[in-house]
Backbone:
């Protein structure tokens, strides 16, 4: 399957232009879904074939490699940096945290799930934007 990069670029531009978080495009047997967190291309002729490409809008770039202790999302949902809009963020880059401290909230099915730190450390990178959809096992914070 040949992927037309122009379509992906155009859909990504629409995300920013219209302030969208997700957009789907379907043509014949190909379905392209673009979101702020990733781009999925699903070819209907090949069972269970899903290719995921990082979108330039995400905080992590594909060539960027940061080592450290990864804190991952325990569930699929929407990540939030603070307990409520306008409130102080749970963590910021450079902040020292302890094991068990809440680093983020992941909302799933109207339930706010606190994500605890799995170890002590200093926040090296926050890998997701506030309000961004996250997948199970996706790295959300990296500690030194």
Residues:
């Amino acid at each position: 399957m040949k992927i037309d990069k122009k379509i992906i670029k155009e859909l990504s531009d629409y995300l920013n232009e219209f302030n969208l978080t997700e957009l789907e495009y379907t043509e014949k047997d190909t379905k392209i879904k673009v979101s702020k967190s990733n781009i999925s291309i699903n070819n209907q002729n090949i069972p269970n074939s899903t290719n995921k490409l990082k979108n330039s809008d995400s905080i992590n770039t594909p060539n960027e490699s940061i080592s450290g202790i990864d804190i991952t999302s325990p569930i699929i949902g929407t990540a939030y940096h603070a307990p409520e809009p306008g409130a102080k963020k749970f963590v910021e880059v450079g902040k020292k945290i302890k094991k068990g401290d809440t680093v983020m909230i992941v909302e799933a099915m109207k339930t706010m799930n606190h994500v605890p730190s799995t170890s002590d450390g200093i926040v090296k990178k926050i890998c997701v934007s506030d309000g961004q959809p996250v997948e199970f096992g996706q790295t959300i914070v990296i500690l030194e």
About this structure: The chain has two domains: 5-53, 69-143. The longest strand covers residues 102-108. The chain is about 10% helix and 40% strand. Residues 32 and 90 are 34 Å apart (CA to CA).
